[in-house]
Design a protein that fits this description.
Blueprint lengths: L2 H29 L2 H13 L3 H6 L3 H15 L5 H15 L2 H15 L4 E3 L4 E5 L5 E4 L1 E8 L2 E7 L6 E9 L2 E10 L1
Antiparallel strand pairs: 1-2, 2-3, 4-5, 5-6, 6-7
Length: 181
């Protein structure tokens, strides 16, 4: 092998190593992104894999956010009704994480959240009235440095299924789920 051939071979191998390093960096970057978490939830939905879905949900934060939302709904002008509502909320506060976990497992195992068409993200979600909300648009809004809101809205934009993602030490996880009407 001549010196020119050796230099060409070294150049090609160096280029391949650089390309592999770039691909590895891109892959690791993608694995740490919210898009990867959303992709994993899509796979969990498609394959009815509740355990995979649970890896991308922070059950305790979802339950805490549900309790906070319930507290905001309480009418503070009526003290008697407020006291009853507060008592009911404090009664379910401890059991809410297990209820949330069971609902997520049931949702992913039953396949009620199904992927209609991956190419244009038509995703069906059930809202509180058990009517499907067809997502024609996917909107992602950055709320803070480590917090992203993902919205799936129906055609009219009057109802949206919202996931709030937060970056944690082991990746992005859903920290809040709600439906806007």
């Amino acid at each position: 092998m001549t010196k020119i051939q050796k230099n060409i071979l070294i150049g090609i191998l160096s280029l391949l190593i650089v390309l592999l390093i770039i691909l590895l960096i891109m892959y690791l970057s993608f694995r740490g992104s919210v898009q990867y978490g959303a992709y994993q939830l899509t796979l969990a939905s498609k394959h009815h894999d509740a355990q995979l879905a649970l890896k991308y949900h922070n059950i305790d934060k979802i339950a805490d956010n549900m309790v906070s939302a319930m507290m905001k709904e309480i009418d503070t002008e009526d003290e008697f009704a407020s006291a009853i509502a507060m008592g009911m909320i404090s009664g379910i506060k401890d059991t809410l994480p297990s209820v949330v976990k069971n609902n997520i497992v049931e949702e992913y195992e039953s396949g009620e959240k199904t992927l209609d068409n991956i190419s244009n993200l038509k995703i069906l979600y059930l809202n509180y009235t058990n009517k499907p909300v067809t997502a024609k648009q996917l909107k992602i809004n950055k709320i803070a440095k480590n917090k992203i809101e993902q919205r799936f809205c129906n055609e009219q934009g009057e109802s949206c299924y919202v996931r709030v993602w937060e970056k944690e030490k082991d990746g992005w996880k859903v920290a809040n789920i709600f439906v806007t009407e």
